[in-house]
Amino acid sequence: MCVYTGFVSIDCGLPENVVGYVDNDTKLRYVSDMGFIDTGTNHNLSAEYLKPSIGRIWHTVRSFAGGSAGARSCYTVRSLVSGLKYLVRAGFIYGNYDGLNRLPVFDLHIGVNYWQTINVSVAGVMAEIITVVPGDSMHMCLVNTGSGTPFISSLDVRPLENKFYPHADESQGLVLVSRTNFGASDTTFVRYPEDRFDRIWSPWSNSTIWSVISTTEKVQNSATNGNDTFEPPLPVMQTAITPINSSSPIDFTWDAQASTTNNPKPGYVWMLHFAELQPTGVRQFYISLNGKSWLMNGSCTPNNLSTTTLYSTKPVYASNQYNISLDATVNSTLPPIINAAEIYSVIPTTNIATTVQEGKQLCTECMWTSWEVIIFQTIYVYSAMNLIDLCVAAENATVSAISAIREKYRVKKNWMGDPCAPKNFVWNGLRCSYAASSPPTVTGLNLSSSGLSGNVSSSLASLRGLQYLDLSHNNLTGSIPESLSQLPSLVFLYGNNPNLCGNGNYCQPPKNKSSSKVVVYVLTPIIAVSVIVLLSIMFLCMRRRMQGTTSSHVKSQDEANITPLHSQNNNEHDSLCLDNRRFKYDELVAVTNGFERVIGRGGFGKVYAGFLEDGTQVAVKLRSESSDQGVQEFLAEAQTLAKIHHKNLVSLIGYCKDREYMALVYEYMSEGALHEHLRRRENNARCLTWRQTLRIALQSAQGLEYLHKGCNPPLIHRDVKTSNILLNANLEAKIADFGLLKAFNSNGDTHVSTARVVGTRGYLAPEYLATFQLTNKSDVFSFGVVLLEIITGQPHILNDPEPTSIVQWVRQRLAHGNIETIVDVRMHNDHDVNSVWKATETALKCTAQLPEQRPTMTDVVLQLQECLKLEAARNDVNA
């Protein structure tokens, strides 16, 4: 990377073998972008665009073809100063580089926040933002919006002094609308070195209505007094305009940006720069905004050959159009004057980036604990070096733990930008948790079948919130760092790595004779202490297990199978061993007050409300003797729920296997099933709004997506329906009822065959009914039916007058293209029609006849997120 007074100057698409070059105009050195991004392809502009007037920086582009809508491609600029303000500028000249003559539209993100939508014109586009960088590195991402292939020509990063542009802070950034040099004598842009921060000032003059005045004398800048917050460059302040007609005002106008889901209420700030260049006479003028006086103290009188800047102290949200007018006062003998102006739109930058160094807490604990604890930790991880390495990695502020893992294993996937934020750009294979006002935390990491080699990275232990780790089906070697055992709730799958040593094997290479004596002297006391400590650990763990505390799991894949072994031996069923609390039947009698209140019924039996000793409300699902669900299905549900964890899956608190009694104890979902809320519409009761049901659909889709993608092996629910989507007090949706869950080996298998069809009529995929062959697309079909129920308010099977599936009913009614013929009338048209259309299209794709024509649940999640954005934008506009 080339650093010139802190500048980063990147020529995007420049071949890697080109060492760089010095720009003829700025004398700044530009380098290839190969060190900043590892995806995309280089292209040259078409020959007809390579004119001598176009600078070298515009000759090449890097494009990011092949990605679907929502794909993110990110540049990473490192070695920045945390908390400092930076000017970031991206340039785009299409130049028909791909021969398609198709100008694309795409989004830019700065870090985890939306920056700007790029709508490329023939002449090109420049995007610029002033932002505070929260860390020592920064991501600039191009986001495919489905309207063409993103590309980029150049990227500049320039440090600013923190006193500059006080509007830009940790909560908001400034996106450039215009930066104008009034009265310039030619069409030359003013930038570096005249502007030491390399801001680009565009020339503007109109000889038909403006008079240009200028000076060769130095215009004093208040930066010399240490109180200037903008510092416009000298050449800009040496020119100005005044009206030809001395009684005319100076007017300039700009249109407000359209409201979008990313920036629903754009606000603006501006800076007006003045200096008197004509000392004879009196120059005094009013400044108004949209016809109203803007200056609190009345009028403005510029200082002779000295810069005065007037600026809005906070964003203005005025109208669809803004007009600033400068009008001479009655006492003025000279017309108004202006030298330069800057206008910015304000964007929020409040999205929180992922926790960067979760290992720092461990290191701090090491430093402040007693020496006995340090010895214990050293023995526990078999080598003090593991702990030292972890602390060094945690203190290294340049690379986060997850980024270190990406670098070590050369993970491609979509691992660019922030791992967890924004939510709809989470890296493939990652699961993240999101708490209000706190950084996202990585809780799950699936790198199975990813071609990994080498040892297991110790950086994994720095992910202190990690609960699920799958490194199975790779070519990893060496031993498993025991530091992973310190993670309090980790489930670790590492099977099918033939050369990986687990379960306490040291995998140490043979030692030469010359060092054997030293090894004996050193290891003998360590081993002795290790044995004592390990015995103590075993005793503590056994005692904790007897008390029912949750422990950490480090298992091979074979040891962590989700479905139980099928056996007819009841003794084997009695030995069901889960980490969740095991209840006795008598305890459940007390919890439910003698099974007093029934809150649900199903094929398994009845569901009862209850309270634990600490007051926690629970739901107890008690298997009846006449239950359709057998012992195996009970065991499957219990063992599955003990091993899968997601915010949109109902959590298992405990279970009961006491003699002939079997029960599952769940978290209590106070608002019941989605099915009940949809049926309430029929009784004219208060029903859920479109926005609420859309959010419920999205959360349910995220739960299914986790089963399909976040579990190994992938899981198929097999009974997705509105009565198996439960709602808590906050109307947050969670998938329930996992008795029919089926594991699916995705490694080359196209389906899993079943002995019989199970599920609920009306929700079953046609190929499953016909062939008994099950895929994750079977769940997608069922979810499509659920989505149609939400949109229409109709049951999954209608009597119209003959029994008709809701899929057929919707397709028939939409034949004439009127969405209102299917939308539930009880929503009283309180919805965004585009949002409903998009949701309906998604549902119909889910219920396509052929499974290969259906989207994945990941695709469904993305589409529903877009639906929710459309509806949210409507609500914001109406607010």
Automatic annotation (TrEMBL):
InterPro entries xrefs: Kinase-like_dom_sf, Leu-rich_rpt, LRR_dom_sf, Malectin-like_Carb-bd_dom, Prot_kinase_dom, Protein_kinase_ATP_BS, Ser-Thr/Tyr_kinase_cat_dom, Ser/Thr_kinase_AS
Lineage, broadest ranks: Eukaryota, Viridiplantae, Streptophyta, Embryophyta, Tracheophyta
Entry's localization field: Cell membrane
Molecular function via GO: ATP binding; protein serine/threonine kinase activity
Name of the protein: non-specific serine/threonine protein kinase
Keywords: ATP-binding, Kinase, Leucine-rich repeat, Membrane, Nucleotide-binding, Phosphoprotein, Receptor, Repeat, Serine/threonine-protein kinase, Signal, Transferase, Transmembrane, Transmembrane helix
Membrane topology: Single-pass membrane protein
GO cellular component: plasma membrane
Keyword Iron among UniProt keywords: no
